[in-house]
Amino acid sequence: MNQKFQSYIAGQWVVGQGSQADENPSDLATPVGEYGVLDAAEVAQAVDAAAAALPAWSLTSPQQRADLLDAVGSEILARKEELGRLLAMEEGKTLPESIGEAARAGQIFKFFAGEALRIPGEKLASTRPGVEVEITREPVGVVGIIAPWNFPLAIPAWKIAPALAYGNTVVFKPAEIVPGCAWAIADILARAGVPAGVFNMVLGAGRVVGQAMIGHKELDALTFTGSVPTGNALLRQAAERGLKIQLEMGGKNPLVVLADADLDKAVECAVNGAFFSTGQRCTASSRLIVESRAYDEFVAKMQARLARVKVGDPLQAGVDIGPVASQGQLDTDLSYIRAGRDEGAELLFGGERVEAPTRGHFLAPTLFAATPEQRISREEIFGPVAALIRADDYEHALALANDTEFGLCAGICTNSLKHASHFKRHAQAGMVMVNLPTAGVDPHVPFGGRKASSYGPREQGRYAVEFYTTVKTAYTAA
Question: What pLDDT shows up at residue 1?
Fold first, then answer.
């Protein structure tokens, strides 16, 4: 595979002003392809096209929007193996994980096809005689979408699908290292018959493309998933403009393991949550908080389980963890491993590059015994690196779990209904898992967190209507 991926503006494919390689993190000698890079003027054309298309699209029938989204979802599901292979080559997820993500993207489009037919409203009695009150939801307008690289099919799907379902037009900027997956989504939408200008996809660097998008006067709303520093910068810019904004910015998610838990199941939850998808999930279990009475046994079981984890080419059968997605992310992971050692954390497993038949960004799953104040216990790493922290008892474990600036997801492994129920209520997180990995959520329920993890309305499910629509109250005299 050596494709050339282009942007999509006003119903036309756009080459851009230059090209960059689309790297294969498993085999740096064989890139996936190359992609054209836009300049600020071309991004402005995309926003202008979305603004021009908004009046007609916002007034289309819900059935027309539902049919379009359903067709997109059907094609994604029919091609999930092909799209999964592209994702695995471009981002590095194992093939089963990649196919699963493609299927999830298809399901999301189909879910919002249904939601297009269920846009809520109310009719209320007024306090004044002879007056009727209607409350309706209307599109928020031109929506800018900035998506990350770690879920290059699913996250764009859960932003694009509701935006279109509720009658908005879209300018979509994918992460630079996954242009192929973005191109595939644009191609499917184009062939499904999305009207010109309703959906636009712009490729290029965030400092150019993202800034040109958010600075455009016709942009009405922005949804972003990515790092805390970038999200905070966008929030400041949005506040200056009065722009509606939604931010998802990561986490430092705890998995609490109590002494009464089934430790074999707890280990599987920990390995899946912390290390699958190469740990590159904002919901990853990067802090494993284990009750003291079970700590030594849990450590031994984790070491034995990690010794069976196979790192390698994500397209090969039997591989559990693929490569880190980019050289930049690999450098970050290695710097945190050095920081863990320098600050006195005990390396329990991994910590080194993995040799493979091809030159790629392969890193062993890495587990440290750490203290709560060390950097590896406090800062989001976004790689296959986890900190194991000892807790005296449940109350101490809960306090450690909440001792973070983030609040996306929290998990607990226990056979105690009392502790599970208390944890669900008192964990300071937007999502809570009991006897499950912290990573892994359904497409039809709300996604989002608290504290520094999120800002604005939730994503996914019927709660997506809160961001992608604006409320109108109308009074009528009889």
Answer: 54
451: exposed, middle or buried (C-beta count within 10 Å: 0-12, 13-18, 19+)?
middle
Is 25 among the domain residues?
Answer: yes
Q: Which of 23, 91, 101, 248 is catalytic?
A: 248
Q: For this structure, is 101 an active site residue?
A: no
φ, ψ of residue 16 to 5 degrees: the values are 95, -175
Q: Taking the complete model, does pTM exceed 0.85, yes or no?
A: yes
Closest Cα partner for 337 from 310, 295, 375, 306? Answer: 375
Q: Which two tokens stand for residue 292?
A: 């003291």
| Residues 342-398 pLDDT 10s | 999 999 999 999 999 999 999 999 999 999 999 999 999 999 999 999 999 999 999
Q: Is 355 a catalytic residue?
A: no
Q: What is the span of the domain harbouring residue 190?
A: 3-249+453-477
Which one is catalytic: 181, 282, 409, 413? 282
* 412 found inside a domain: yes
**Domain shared by 98 and 143, yes or no:** yes
Pair of tokens at residue 355: 């040799």
**Does residue 345 sit within a domain?**
yes
State how far the Cα of 88 lies from the Cα of 239, in Å rounded to an integer: 37
Answer whether residue 61 shows pLDDT above 90.
yes
Instruction: List, for residues 160-205, the tens digit of each pLDDT value.
Output: 999 999 999 999 999 999 999 999 999 999 999 999 999 999 999 9
150 and 9 in a single domain? The answer is: yes
Give 227's contacts (C-beta < 8 A, 6+ positions apart): 249, 250
